[in-house]
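Support request, please re-run this one:
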Amino acid sequence: MTKKLVVIPTYNESENIADIISDILKLNLDILIVDDNSPDNTSKIVMEHKEFDSKVFLLSRKEKLGLGSAYREGFQKGINMKYEYFIQMDADFSHRVEDLKLMINQTENKDVIIGSRYIDGGKIIGWSKRRHLLSFIANLYSKLLTFSNVSDMTSGFRIYRLDALEKIRYTETKSNGYAFQIEMTVLCLINKLNIKEIPITFNERREGKSKMSKSVVFEAFPKVLFLSLLRIKSIFTPESLNNNQDRNFGTYYKLFNLSNSTKYSIKISDLFKR
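Re-run finished. Output below.
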């Protein structure tokens, strides 16, 4: 039986974490919580769980370092623990455990499974029209600029095979926020991985405050421009993938990193203030 690990980044999820852990354990999966020093005692609740250190594990970080960073560290810890499949999932019940079961059943001969809100059968419950529009625009923008056939570029509900993560060199990704999922998707496309999208029902979080905002979404937009450069290069000069520097963004990342600057992000966000 293959070893599967659910990696869940958390920040102030004390109202949800115990229940989501219990629900996931019903699928006989192991769980790694990556907590960014939540002041609401999220990590304490995890450590008090009866399955702690047997099927539930905790990676505590000293400060809030971002989503991408949490997954990179979580994947690495899971690799060190000899897991073969890595599941990305939120702690707030926006990702349903019943959908996870369906996704796991589709992993045979697939490198990546993406829980999609934007294919037939997928849907979103509890969002305002404004948030629907924002998500739709971000997905369409990312899809068009990166020549992607993946419908839900920003989905955070995914399963990766170990060899898929190693092939795309996930440790060299640069995004930490909303753009992380887009960056991972582009790397999967460039490396011609076998991706399958499964329709899911995405629910608004059950408890607590959402970390998503307009500024988080819009600061990803300039990063997608740089990701599109790499995607275009891979399409028209595929031999460049043999060059490690080009394959892992190389000089593109020098530009890409500029879009991480606080000053630049604030300017982008300011364009969309009320």
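Residues 78 and 119 are 30 Å apart (CA to CA). Strands lie at 4-10, 30-35, 56-60, 85-88, 112-116, 123-125, 158-161, 195-199, 201-203.
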